[in-house]
């Protein structure tokens, strides 16, 4: 009798488990643990039924005077600090002059930061053949191309060689294509120092 009872229990358990496989149901799943799956919230691009919002938009405009994350320095009362956070002009064009003076100290600081943060991909000479960069496809662009009188630069090389400093700063800050952003890892002042060092590498290659 005991064996029969055990067999019946085993058969019932097997039927229960097998009955849950491959079945399609329109009934909502059972949530034993809610995990905040069901809560009052507004989704992007959806209509809001909140009575205080006449436009019925769920996505709200920022409060007047809100400063975007990472741009606090641009609103500094100290003009020397504020200008370090500006890499575009009022009409949206990239600035062409580095706000930091090209002193030996700034170039040396740029070399140090470049070797720490940039050489893995761009190489110590800036030609995109670092220990990581040489394994990437496509290779990182060389911003220090070989400059020879009998070998003019290609259109792409010339563009990279003559990038405005503002565009270089934006690329370091926000990343571009397969390059990650370094705005959270490299300070604002150090980014401008790195650009000074890149210009020094270019000048050495040209001369």
Number of strands: 0
Under CATH, the topology of the domain at 104-206 is which?
Answer: Cytochrome Bc1 Complex, Chain D, domain 2
Which spans of ≥5 residues are poorly predicted at pLDDT below 50? none
| Proportion of residues in extended strands | under 5%
Which bin fits the share of residues in helices? Answer: 25-40%
Quick one: CATH superfamily of the domain at 104-206?
A: Cytochrome c-like domain
Give the H and E element order: HHHHHHH
Q: Supply the CATH class of the domain at 104-206.
A: Mainly Alpha
Structure description:
With 207 residues, the chain is an all-alpha fold. It has a domain at 104-206: Orthogonal Bundle (Cytochrome Bc1 Complex, Chain D, domain 2), CATH 1.10.760.10. 36% of the residues lie in helices and 0% in strands. The protein has seven helices and no strands. The protein has helices spanning 2-18, 79-82, 104-117, 119-122, 155-161, 165-174, 188-206. It is elongated and about 100 Å long.
Descriptors for this entry?
207 residues; elongated; mainly alpha; Cytochrome Bc1 Complex, Chain D, domain 2; single chain
How does the SSE layout of this entry go?
Elements: H1 2-18, H2 79-82, H3 104-117, H4 119-122, H5 155-161, H6 165-174, H7 188-206
Helix pairs in contact: 3-7, 6-7
Overview in brief:
By secondary structure, this protein is an all-alpha fold. The protein has seven helices and no strands.
